[in-house]
Amino acid sequence: MAETSITISNDISEVRQLAKWAGLFCDANGLQALEHRLTLVLEELLTNVIAYGYDDDAEHKIDAYVALTDGVLTAVFEDDGRPFNPYEAQKPVMTGPLEKRTVGGLGIHLILTIMDTVDYERIDDRNRTTMTMAVAT
Predict the structure, then answer these.
(1) Whole-prediction pTM value?
(2) pLDDT of res. 107
(3) CB neighbours of 37 closer than 8 A, spacing ≥ 6?
């Protein structure tokens, strides 16, 4: 089993650090073909938490964990933002002229499409999103 974790803050500049961390994990575990998808999922979660998760301007800590076990990539994302269940998020409008579509929901749609499973829990005033993807190793 290979695993790693990182704690970052709710600052948009942390997106770069999160992407680098995910890339290092993928490189170390022969998962270069999945790096873009994993990075996209984690970046979408982080930007959603930063944009919509907090009612204040204080610094908040966000934890991410990635593991590879028996051909399954597991990513866990935890934050202390307001409760947010991705299955209750607004569905994106995918048809019609772009200028008439409402904004929102595309990032969550991407996450639900890319990952094999996405589970959400609210534990001790924290959001925990656990995602898995089968990988060929």
Answers:
(1) 0.84
(2) 66
(3) 114, 133
